[in-house]
Protein 1
Amino acid sequence: MSGRQSGRPTLEQVAARAGVGRGTVSRVINGSPRVSEQTRTAVARAVAELGYVPNQAARALAGSRTDAIALVIPEAEARLFAEPYFLDLIRGVSAELAEADKQLLLTLVRSEQERQRFEQYLAAQRVDGVLLASVHGDDPLPDRIRELGLPVVMNGRRAEAEPVPYVDSDNIGAGRAAVAHLVGRGRGRIATVTGPLDMYVARARLGGYRAGLAEAGLSPDEALVSAGDFTEEGGRRAMRLLLDRSPDLDAVFAASDVMAAGARAALREAGRRVPDDVALVGVDDSPVARLMDPPLTSVRQPIEEMGRTMARMLLQEIAEAPQEPRRHVLPTELIVRESC
Amino acid sequence: MSGRQSGRPTLEQVAARAGVGRGTVSRVINGSPRVSEQTRTAVARAVAELGYVPNQAARALAGSRTDAIALVIPEAEARLFAEPYFLDLIRGVSAELAEADKQLLLTLVRSEQERQRFEQYLAAQRVDGVLLASVHGDDPLPDRIRELGLPVVMNGRRAEAEPVPYVDSDNIGAGRAAVAHLVGRGRGRIATVTGPLDMYVARARLGGYRAGLAEAGLSPDEALVSAGDFTEEGGRRAMRLLLDRSPDLDAVFAASDVMAAGARAALREAGRRVPDDVALVGVDDSPVARLMDPPLTSVRQPIEEMGRTMARMLLQEIAEAPQEPRRHVLPTELIVRESC
DNA sequence: CAACGACGTGGGAGCGCTCCCATCCGGGAC
DNA sequence: GTCCCGGATGGGAGCGCTCCCACGTCGTTG
């Protein structure tokens, strides 16, 4: 209730009130150990009395660090995965950053022009590091950012071997688990609707599918593989193609829930019952899976946890104290419902 | 390709290169008209040659404006509306801000403690203004922020009469449109599953439902009104209750798609066919609506447009040049599908 | 008992920009 | 020719902080 007369208080004013020097207050604020207990309390009281809050701009200017990190999401993908994927990711990142008292700058990139503008930001020293979601197979951005000297962590990777630090989910394991489950239910003609194969995530899930077949002693059959594009319509088309080519299939592993929904519609059109005639498994465990009829068995990714891990890794890179490895592959989990 | 030797270039260096003073370069950068054409070009060339990008922190410190705005989303709601609602909103906000070259700081608030921390940020002068999504009926935050002297714009409102600038969708119109459609299809016993009535949005949709009945000359019946909580489970419970109380109902207006999905499940359990026995309408036009069986008729809100409008309003408030009114109610639109 | 670290502290020197005032220049009015 | 005015320009004075060096003031060592 005091000392509020002229704008926000500054370090200087706190120092005067506590009867110490500017440097000392700064030390207390930043938790330096080189301050006596007595002084510390005196300063803390002055801070409380004046309601002092450090000016972020001044801090950033003097200390050349912003306490903010950027999360970049390509707009096209945000639309594609309309699912809560990105929200979950954001939630995880946000939670971890909040604990570290860092700001989250969200950047939706929707055009090449905006991507360039974003590189400008980086150059303007607005953030201490960058989180990249959903990187394309040939995206040069991660490397560009590193050239600028900024720490980066990606969600997913561009290829099996990825030089830039990343957090991915075990997409191969996801495919294997799905196939194993279907095999366990007695299915022997298991088809798959893949994502676009220029994305590593799609290739990995397909690889898992193949590995699953091999482990079950089933021989691969390219007629049972059809490429979708992670959209519902794409799933529908791919499913029609599969039914056409291999009418005897008795199960389908769709590389995403949305495609599974499309496949389900195509199955209905074709008069196939789920799960009686054809069992169905998706990936993502999105709300859509729960609401489908019948509810969809799906492989869950720990999306929020990926977000948290990314943020944690980035903070360590920024602190130049990477304690964890620079690559993380988090486990997936099969959620069994009535679709198989 | 030049002058890259010592960190990023500063204003001073650009000035030296262009053979002018610091002030002049600043004027050019900021588009001041008081610069001769000739000087302007010379400076522009120096900027390009050195790859100069203004340091944001220095700008903020000297100019006391940050070119960043905060978007605050209560975590609980983000979970509730798991739908793409917030992503769409973010998309709109982001698009508008990108055009104005402003940064978007996303803040997910998940506890009272974090809310207080957020107020600290504001005091730390990190942002020029605040966008508030999904405000509770009795949320004091909007007023608190205004007390701090920061411009605010909310998404939705706390009550019919709302002092703080806001952008809302026409929820009353949504209810009326839904009912009118059902009446047009020959339904006469139209029930509704509402949202939690301590939220204005829920009350408004209920109000629209009632207005719709009145306009059709149907008499209201409280046995046809049941409160949900915007969750699937809540929708299911409310629907069961309605079937119990009014077995003769022939249509339901659910105040959200998610609740409609719950209601649909309850109808299935009860052996009622949709739309033959009971017609169903939701609100949001979310992906869930499209994927339901049968696909759900739903009232679409212009979410992304709301985001854009909010951002535009806020920018005007910041510039102290509000050209638009401080309240916006955007129209909704009925998307007809097979559920009625 | 002098010399010497170690610790706690004060405050100068910037960080890179914006704001603003003083200065300069040229052309028109008298 | 002199005076005046307005537009263009240079650069000082901060903005509020961090960094770091210098300065006591002790307790300890030889």
Protein 2
Amino acid sequence: MRKYTEILKAISDEKRLRILRTLIKSKTGMCVCELMDTLGEQPYNISRNLKILQFLGLVEGRREGKWVVYSAVQSRDEFLKYVIKAIDSIPNEFFREDDLRMKLRLNLRQAGRCVYGVNSRAWNEAVKKIYKQIL
Amino acid sequence: MRKYTEILKAISDEKRLRILRTLIKSKTGMCVCELMDTLGEQPYNISRNLKILQFLGLVEGRREGKWVVYSAVQSRDEFLKYVIKAIDSIPNEFFREDDLRMKLRLNLRQAGRCVYGVNSRAWNEAVKKIYKQIL
DNA sequence: TTGTCATTTGCGCAATTATGCAAATGTAAA
DNA sequence: TTTACATTTGCATAATTGCGCAAATGACAA
């Protein structure tokens, strides 16, 4: 039973919930620096929480050169399927900024791959531009 | 978003998960002493955790004389429905003893109501009898 | 009222978990 | 090899949470 409660506890942390949800929504998976820019978190917070999610079988990571790309695992387990559905049932309004920034960050990719590090000039300008548009 | 993570955290605790699941399975609701006997927990652990579940809208309590009867709330909320389904997807084998003891405890009722306090003679004999049968 | 039983709650301690910093590791390009 | 960047991890500390005890509350019957 421990496995089940560990999974619930893992996603009961807001940071991990946002990381997992972002990876699910991204479809393609994302590298650590893309998650950092998207969620505005420190590298160790992203990395450590990804490790926890990975240990529980919720995400998986693969190295691609300097980058490590994580993606949500598509599970056949009934428990996990309902957990994912529950996450997906949380109204999008709570993740509006995450979703916007993820879209923006993935737009910086070239040939479907991350090419900028964290907090890059390109990223900062893209964010500034959008926030100006919105306000 | 806090509300959602709080609910996940609440059921990520094994004691609370077992309390909630037991109430769901019981259909009729159960009083604190029935939960104590069923789960083998101290009164303050049952009571405090019920309060947390109640605060989050997962269970509701009503007083019936000396007893306070709690029951699982049937929610219309999509998030909660999937959370309940997830709980229901955890294999029953993990709750075999809980289920047996719940059935045993509810069998002691008269006219559908709890009539024995915690750790009563009737309860102890019922348990001893069943455990002798099984072993 | 008094006593008894069922349940709740305040308080302090123990255990767990999250977080930041700094250092370490891994990878590729200069 | 050196450098730069991406990611991970060990360690110490802060914050949160769980738990037991003892006392309080609520309800009913003697």
Protein 3
Amino acid sequence: MTAPGRRPPGRPRDPGADAAILRAALDLFIEHGVEGTSIERVAKAAGVGKLTVYRRWSGKEELIAAAVEAARDDPVDLPADTPLAAVAWGAAAAQAEHIVQPRFRAMVARVLGTSASHPAIMAAYWTHYVEPRRAALRPLIERALAEGALPAHTDPDVLMDMMAGAVLYRLARPGPLDAATMRRYLEDVYAQAGLERPRPAPGEQSEPERGGGP
Amino acid sequence: MTAPGRRPPGRPRDPGADAAILRAALDLFIEHGVEGTSIERVAKAAGVGKLTVYRRWSGKEELIAAAVEAARDDPVDLPADTPLAAVAWGAAAAQAEHIVQPRFRAMVARVLGTSASHPAIMAAYWTHYVEPRRAALRPLIERALAEGALPAHTDPDVLMDMMAGAVLYRLARPGPLDAATMRRYLEDVYAQAGLERPRPAPGEQSEPERGGGP
DNA sequence: GTTTGTTAACGGTACCGTTCCGTTTCCCTA
DNA sequence: TAGGGAAACGGAACGGTACCGTTAACAAAC
């Protein structure tokens, strides 16, 4: 796309408009759901005319799917040489901090909620958010399995489903939820999954890992 | 409530109207979500005047929460003397059949999706649907744990979260899903949880268990 | 000056929560 | 047995708001 091809004639599109629209669409989607989001409100919130939206996306579902897709943050980058248990416990605090945020919690819930009626949105989330994280995690699980750090009968995919699913389930549960509670919960899940808590080397501190969760 | 207290004067409310309204509200909620459901449409679908709805429930959220609450089916009744593994594998087929139904799948997704913006609906589901099932299952898990049929470090609540969460996660995943696939998946989850597959006694057939799921 | 982007305004539809109808169904008293 | 009162019923309409998808007119970039 950065290829030579001549620039199309006429006035080029404002790239800032794309970003503003996607951001506004995501905010409204998180707060009001698909059915409660209208192109008109997205346009108003983005400070843009309706036609500016319609020109780029043909409808609500397509727009929201694009917004979800654009919302993914930096791809995960797990250290391949660190044992799974060390990674898990080391990242637990940062993980908890991240997924407990109301905005994240609400977005996950919304995406889940649309899976039946608007599969495109769920598919966008799954492809651009969930799958990359699973792909990054899988080799660590397989290595742990090969080294005997996990029960022999472990199926990596099912294990990931169970861990992510449990966290998701916990997030969706009614009632307040703070980061400390969630951290404890994460550790319980790791333990239940069969991971041994690593004994922290003296002076070693938990190493934050950016962007994770179900 | 069946107590003596005199019947209030005037025409009594039509109980059929309650049922029709709740049914219509649940259908519309499943199909269009909270934000896409209007009292007006509920009334029309139920063949009832708007006022008949407003007389009973003060607003949309309250109505839908009541509809979700009323949609719960017969309480589970697990045989306390059967080993957990036998119950799990015996009920897997019926379970799979049940939770794969589009209506169930969609309802779970919708409820999950409202957990952030409309906690009352999620709370109704949790209290009247999830909790009773967990309460029925817990003693079986504790017994299995005591008998050594589960890993010693097992935390019953976390285990239930992981099993239910995994299934939920699988339900929300995009793409088609048939009962046979789901049955295999359920069995994978049971195995991953640490349950040993029971060797079926000759002539013994899977025993259906009514109404389960996340 | 041609192409495209942006904005403002269009008519039409749906829903809101409320308020009237005229009717129906029950309880209580005369 | 005959009435009268109280409440619920379906249906229609209220003014007000929001959104739909499109079109016409102005502005900007090439």
Protein 4
Amino acid sequence: MSLREKKVEKKKEEIRKSAMSVIAEKGYHATTMEDIAAKLLMTKGSVYYYFKDKESLVYESHKLLLEQSMEQLQNVLAEELPSVAKLRKAMVVHMENVITERTDFFIGVKPDQVFEGEHLQEILHLRNQYSDCMNRLIQQGMEDGSFVQVDMKIVNYIILGAMNNAVIWYSPKGSKSIEELANSIADYLLKILL
Amino acid sequence: MSLREKKVEKKKEEIRKSAMSVIAEKGYHATTMEDIAAKLLMTKGSVYYYFKDKESLVYESHKLLLEQSMEQLQNVLAEELPSVAKLRKAMVVHMENVITERTDFFIGVKPDQVFEGEHLQEILHLRNQYSDCMNRLIQQGMEDGSFVQVDMKIVNYIILGAMNNAVIWYSPKGSKSIEELANSIADYLLKILL
DNA sequence: TTAAAATCTGACTTGACATTCAAAGTCAGA
DNA sequence: TCTGACTTTGAATGTCAAGTCAGATTTTAA
């Protein structure tokens, strides 16, 4: 990649970050392209130089986040760990993502209210992929007898729902660190499976 | 109440219902006053005859729903039941509300992105009240030894989060009836406390 | 140094709503 | 039947944010 391309990519990355951050703060509909630009001391016009429109910017941002989370999850999947520890780790990683990225995206807005066509398909696909991985973790645990038999689908919804919802109530002012919090939530949720 | 007042109240009720229904369908920001009116074969002008503005309409609708849920919860609280059965019933009732009203209990938007001032305060107050009631149920169970000791606040967030999230994924096409679904979710969540 | 390429700017256009309002329509009861 | 209060209508208005674009400015590389 040429220097120029690197610079452009860096700028795009900054803009994506800014977008995610402002959206996490104010919600998708309340954040304007000017907000996103202002945060970087730019003007709207510049943002449009890098991104076709708001939808594309948000799509790319969201996609990247999902892909990164997916990759982390895959890494956990690949580890040599007993089922319980593996699922536990996956949950902790997820919680940390939810809290640090504050991506209200999993709950705030339904994807079909923001994306269309290809973009919508891709986002749904990535989400399903993620969800499937979690399912696999539960499945494995049930097969090797680490977990009790449960309705995988429902339990998965419960687990992801409980975790994603933290965006709404988490506050850095709380007495627990993110790590502690992630761990205790993971422990509580694991009790459903033990 | 005079005949006319009854008629007005009935109309307002219809409009609130329509608003909640369209919002559940398309999301708060995507639903226009015309959508809400059209569903009742009215024009938006009429809606404005009954409600000052969109915010007020949604506020009143949402408030009523919260109050109704609160009342149901209070009724459960008042019943003579062992802790486990009581919390279980509260959860089932909540789930049924979430699914039938399809208002994620909360519009899918954080309240401070919709309401302001007094209205916002009142909505937050009602939510807290509701949450406190759930807390009380957990507290009681821990005190009488029915539940293990847990961090009440976190567990409460988990429980409400997991349940509210059902708005996102519930589909009437699923094989389980609402009642079955509510029951199995309640059972899974109770395992956290047993 | 300098001209072409890449970036950036901000005023402008557009369109989608929310909200208003004057006029028209409805209806219970005198 | 008539009247006046109550309702409804839909066109007009106001607002706000997305998206555009003709330059202005900065960077690149010869």
